[in-house]
């Protein structure tokens, strides 16, 4: 059965799939453009980069496709407001935000007619986001990559949040690696769409270094671990030599903070430096964020082929049950 479209605000994605906005410089216009062209929502990672760079990348994406372009901005960023306003000025279609919760972002979205999509990991924040005016809500579970807001798995936390969100689209995120799982989350659990990130790292268009991609390709299940981020949250990453040295007690803190990018930072290490190092190829001294199931992915494919496989597999088993979605039930017929 054909997958339904995903409507967020005044925008309609032909394929109910959001590409996660990975920072720093993992999700750029180079990735967002082909995702949007395939009918999904292409997302630029807007955290940890200078405002002029973000504006230029958004404008590049908007000029290259008629598809939907979003930007993901962490609330934990010190210049969160500047990044939001710059994104709106550059013409972004919607703003996705997590790693903290902003009430003011909804007022800004309403003022500038820009849909705000909240990433949450609890029923209370989901309920609050819908009340304050979120155009859609992403439920991000423990299987996700990068910064984590919960230790609960997707299939446990999603049904609870589904029960309290009824007016806006609810998106499932965390550990989804193929179209069969996409159909499961939509058909059985009532998701209106999915968000995936790690799978797009292993795309031809993702602009990270080959060394970064090779780290994914070589990773085994036991290599994917939780680490403490200077942001004050747990993060999930592939164990690199940098993480090993840190676990052994080596002082990896910077002599001086060059960025001062976070509202709160432990200064245990510079997350911006370590993420950028991996993107450029120095994975031994870098941080490689990934989802819990990244070890299952062993192919680098064009974005178009990733979409083709997801849609084909999802539609081969998808059987929309409107009553289940309406009632928020997780029981199969």
TrEMBL record:
One Pfam family matching this protein: NMO
UniProt-listed InterPro entries: Aldolase_TIM (IPR013785), NMO (IPR004136)
Keyword Oxidoreductase recorded: yes
Name of the protein in its database record: NAD(P)H-dependent flavin oxidoreductase YrpB, nitropropane dioxygenase family
Keyword NAD among record annotations: no
Domain of life: Bacteria
Keywords: Dioxygenase, Flavoprotein, FMN, Oxidoreductase
SUPFAM superfamilies given in the database record: Inosine monophosphate dehydrogenase (IMPDH) (SSF51412)
Alphabetized GO MF terms: dioxygenase activity; nitronate monooxygenase activity
């Amino acid at each position: 059965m054909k997958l339904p479209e995903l409507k967020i605000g005044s925008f309609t994605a032909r394929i109910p799939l959001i590409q996660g906005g990975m920072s720093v410089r993992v999700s750029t216009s180079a990735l967002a453009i082909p995702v949007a062209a395939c009918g999904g929502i292409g997302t630029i990672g807007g955290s940890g980069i200078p405002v002029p760079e973000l504006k230029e990348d958004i404008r590049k994406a908007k000029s290259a496709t008629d598809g939907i372009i979003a930007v993901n901005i962490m609330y934990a960023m010190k210049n969160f407001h500047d990044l939001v306003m710059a994104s709106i000025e550059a013409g972004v279609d919607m703003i996705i935000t997590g790693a903290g919760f902003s009430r003011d972002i909804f007022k800004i979205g309403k003022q500038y007619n820009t849909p705000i999509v909240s990433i949450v990991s609890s029923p209370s924040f989901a309920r609050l986001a819908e009340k304050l005016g979120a155009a859609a809500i992403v439920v991000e579970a423990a299987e996700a990559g990068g910064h984590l807001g919960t230790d609960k798995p997707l299939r446990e936390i999603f049904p609870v949040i589904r029960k309290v969100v009824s007016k806006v689209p609810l998106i499932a995120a965390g550990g989804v690696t193929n179209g069969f799982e996409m159909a499961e989350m939509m058909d059985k659990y009532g998701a209106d769409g999915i968000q995936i990130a790690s799978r797009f790292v292993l795309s031809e268009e993702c602009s990270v270094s080959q060394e970064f991609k090779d780290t994914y390709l070589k990773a085994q299940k036991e290599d994917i671990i939780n680490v403490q981020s200077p942001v004050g949250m747990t993060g999930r990453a592939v164990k690199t030599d940098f993480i090993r040295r840190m676990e052994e007690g080596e002082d990896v803190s910077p002599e001086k903070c060059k960025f001062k990018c976070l509202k709160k930072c432990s200064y245990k290490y510079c997350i911006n430096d370590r993420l950028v190092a991996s993107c450029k190829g120095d994975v031994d001294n870098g941080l490689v964020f990934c989802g819990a199931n990244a070890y299952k992915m062993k192919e680098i494919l064009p974005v178009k082929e990733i979409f083709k496989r997801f849609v084909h597999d999802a539609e081969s088993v998808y059987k929309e049950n409107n009553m289940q979605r309406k009632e928020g039930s997780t029981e199969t017929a």
